[in-house]
Write a structure and sequence with these properties.
Elements: E1 8-14, H1 18-27, E2 38-42, H2 57-69, E3 74-79, H3 86-93, H4 95-102, E4 105-108, E5 117-120, E6 131-134, H5 136-139, E7 142-152, E8 157-159, H6 161-164, H7 180-186, H8 190-197, E9 205-217, E10 222-225, E11 229-233, H9 236-249, H10 254-257, H11 265-272, E12 283-286, H12 290-303
Parallel strand pairs: 1-12, 2-3, 2-7, 3-4, 7-9
Antiparallel strand pairs: 1-11, 5-6, 7-8, 9-10, 9-11
Helix pairs in contact: 1-2, 8-11, 9-12
């Protein structure tokens, strides 16, 4: 079984320059053609707190410019904030100003009509009624996710690419009083439910911005460190496993340190669902220099 699965290539870059780092790492990825396609970008706009509380605006800007350079006909940036009013969070972060400047669409998920949501019911899932995600996710040609590197004190334990997908899920949909976020955060299966959200879509690119990270606290504020790395690829499990290894290297919480990385609930459930690598043997790291090679080797050793 394990040997028959595809190897996931993850690009790993250490850098002092955020913008040039993103350009360089994207050049190493076998991206789909964006020519004349619609591209949805899911950042982390959980709150209006500065990076890594939310996506760094220079990261989002550079990513959008790179997608536009590759010929995308329409770019949509969308999210639902967990800490604050989504529109106000986006406004405070400068999303609407950037949208006018760079000519992309902004989708505030809290403002979608009932008809713009669809219910997903994963087989053997832990959601009582399934969960609701925007229909746009299944209508666009390509999906890009850009996430941060940080711990999460409200039960997720860590919030990387898998946890970033929670922002796709409705808190409530019009005409239905069920609160999906209350269900998630009160459930003993929270971390498994986080993984299950990811079964609803497949990203064409995941970019993890680890220029800075929270190793304790989070998601809005926390103990700050500066790994100065980017990870990029298509495999959310592989990226999260390496991200957790980075958090451990810089001295993180007991819950993030506890046990083998591939046995942590978010990651274990994601592998059960076939969302990515199920062992370190299925991850191949592409590096750009000796510093990156040595650090990635150290992280891979943590996964064993």
């Amino acid at each position: 079984m394990e040997g028959s699965q595809k190897i996931s290539q993850i690009s790993f870059l250490t850098t002092e320059d955020r913008n040039q780092g993103i350009i360089k790492i994207l050049q190493s990825i076998e991206l789909p053609s964006f020519d004349e396609k619609s591209v949805f970008i899911k950042p982390n706009l959980n709150s209006a707190d500065p990076f890594p509380g939310s996506t760094h605006m220079d990261t989002l800007r550079t990513l959008i410019l790179e997608v536009k350079k590759r010929g995308a006909k329409r770019i949509i940036v969308g999210d639902r904030s967990g800490m604050g009013n989504s529109r106000e969070v986006m406004k405070n972060l400068g999303i609407f100003f950037m949208a006018d400047e760079l000519d992309f669409d902004v989708m505030v998920f809290d403002e979608l009509s009932k008809e713009e949501w669809k219910i997903i019911r994963p087989p053997d899932g832990h959601w009582k009624k399934g969960f609701a995600i925007p229909k746009i996710i299944s209508e666009v040609d390509c999906i890009i996710q850009t996430c941060c590197l940080k711990t999460h004190r409200f039960g997720g334990h860590f919030t990387l690419s898998l946890k970033n997908s929670v922002g796709l899920v409705a808190k409530k949909i019009p005409g239905d009083n069920h609160n999906y976020m209350h269900e998630l955060h009160l459930s003993i299966h929270q971390r498994k439910m986080i993984a299950e959200i990811n079964s609803s879509y497949t990203p064409d690119l995941v970019l993890l911005d680890g220029m800075e990270a929270f190793v304790k606290g989070g998601p809005a504020k926390g103990k700050l460190v500066s790994p100065k790395i980017f990870l990029a690829g298509k495999d959310r499990v592989a990226i999260d496993a390496l991200g957790v290894a980075l958090l451990r290297k810089f001295g993180t919480t007991v819950k993030v340190r506890k046990g083998p990385i591939f046995e942590l609930e978010q990651i274990a459930r994601a592998t059960e669902l076939g969302l990515g690598a199920s062992s370190p043997n299925q991850i191949k790291i592409l590096t750009f220099d000796e510093e990156s090679r040595l650090l990635s080797k150290e992280l891979m050793n943590q996964l064993i």
